[in-house]
Amino acid sequence: MKKKIIIIGSGFSSLSAACYLAKSGHQVNIYEKNSTPGGRARQLKKDGFVFDIGPSWYWMPDVFEKFFNDFGKSVSDFYQLERLDPGYQVYFGKNDSVSIGDNLEKIYDAFEEVEKGSAQKLKKFIEKAADNYKIAIDELVYRPGVSPLELITPETIKKLGYFFSNVKKEVTRDFKNPKLAQILQFPVLFLGAKPADTPAFYNFMNFADFGLGTWHPKDGMYSIVKGMVSLAESLGVKIHVDSPVDEIVLEKNTAVGIKLKGNTILCDIVLSGADYHHTETLMPQQYRAYSEAYWDKKVFAPSSLLFYVGLNKKVKKVSHHTLFFDVDFDTHASAIYDKAEWPDEPLFYANFPSISDPDMAPEGKEACFILIPIAPGLEDTDKLRDKYFDIVLNRLEALTGQELKDDILFKESFCVNDFISVYNSYKGNAYGMANTLFQTAFLRPKLKSKKVNNLFFSGQLTVPGPGVPPALISGKLVAGLIEKN
Ligand SMILES: Cc1cc2nc3c(=O)[nH]c(=O)nc-3n(C[C@H](O)[C@H](O)[C@H](O)COP(=O)(O)OP(=O)(O)OC[C@H]3O[C@@H](n4cnc5c(N)ncnc54)[C@H](O)[C@@H]3O)c2cc1C
Hints:
By secondary structure, the protein is an alpha/beta fold. The protein contains 16 helices and 19 strands. It has helices spanning 12-23, 61-69, 104-114, 118-140, 154-158, 160-163, 167-174, 178-185, 204-212, 222-234, 276-280, 292-297, 329-337, 382-400, 416-423, 468-484; strands at 4-8, 27-31, 43-46, 49-52, 81-83, 88-93, 96-100, 215-217, 238-240, 245-251, 254-260, 263-266, 269-272, 303-311, 321-324, 348-351, 366-374, 408-414, 455-457.
């Protein structure tokens, strides 16, 4: 039966679900509180500079291709993709960096240069990671997390040991060189937890990194949003921006609509791609499946302090994606996950999209986006933001041997308070709930409400987890459950 479906929020998972549901003939309306669609993947345009406000790493291109293929389309029908070379560069000290090239041979060579004999070890490591990637994609991530039995297949049983070991242990067993160990632990940071708390099976992210590569959609990640919006609209989805949903309307324990700016809009199904915790606050307490104590105990992905900087010159000795791992990783991780305090010496990530995409900054200038991961819920003041901007800019200048301060045309920032006010994010988390062993698959908050009929969820706090590719998958999974409802 064709249904009237309301989707709260327009992040990737919502857009994905909307496409699948509209393709099946349902009438789909998306209500987004902000003035543009795309959720955390908004775009900032200023004085000829273009910045992605949220995600900037395009990994797992196969997942995007699969999504568009489900609609008889291809990524290339919507945006142009380029594999970056180097994929990224990692700084460990002044003029001391390692670049990750655009194919495995180049990466083996880079490892060998840092430590003799490591190329051979990396080959073996990547073979196993590739095997795990195949299992993850074929047998795990496209499962809705309804039952633990979903995880039990002949292939996954063979890999059981990987679920009870962790990424840090596996990496440091094979790679003693701290730089190489650091590079190999970086990809799982996308999953939101410390490598020591992330099951070793997730080393499939190393294959995603080295084997599948880092890509750039022309004009930035917002091109994906534009592509998905165009697909959704072609399928009949209506997207309403500037439309904050105030309440989920219930009849007994069944969702029958939403309240928006004082008006009630009725429907058969409500699906929320907004943060799970926030969505449940749109209903009285007794209809919420998860208590405040439940959320408080969960490991959340970090929040971030972000800067969007327009520079009046080109920046030297950096790449499109540049990581600054010149300070102790474990100390910063402990400030995020154990102590929940501002780090004394932060690791940071800087993105210069105009290096590979000249249209993202005026000629001769550079767009610079800086991200410092921090614990969710931290105090957020202008003074702290300024203090950390000075710290990271001084480091960027010192490590790359150039002056940039006098060339700052403008600087915008975004932090915990903005994540809360702009996205209704729980404690200002940037990318959802982490994928630890006890927060994986069926152990994550459910796609289908346990207490309210006809209410569903998608996105980075449910299955499969944080990141743009998982959000696309989440939308597909929830659409499948709605079909079966
Ligand atoms: C700074 C940053 C960097 C990141 N980097 C990467 C990266 O490089 N690569 C990667 O793959 N992933 C990255 N991520 C993660 C990725 O962006 C997210 O996991 C993904 O975009 C989340 O999609 P989602 O569908 O869960 O929804 P979200 O993007 O969270 O969208 C939810 C939407 O719901 C709206 N909403 C909330 N409340 C209401 C309401 N009451 N009424 C109406 N609308 C409402 C919000 O405004 C928002 O638009 C990053 C995230 C951030 C923040």
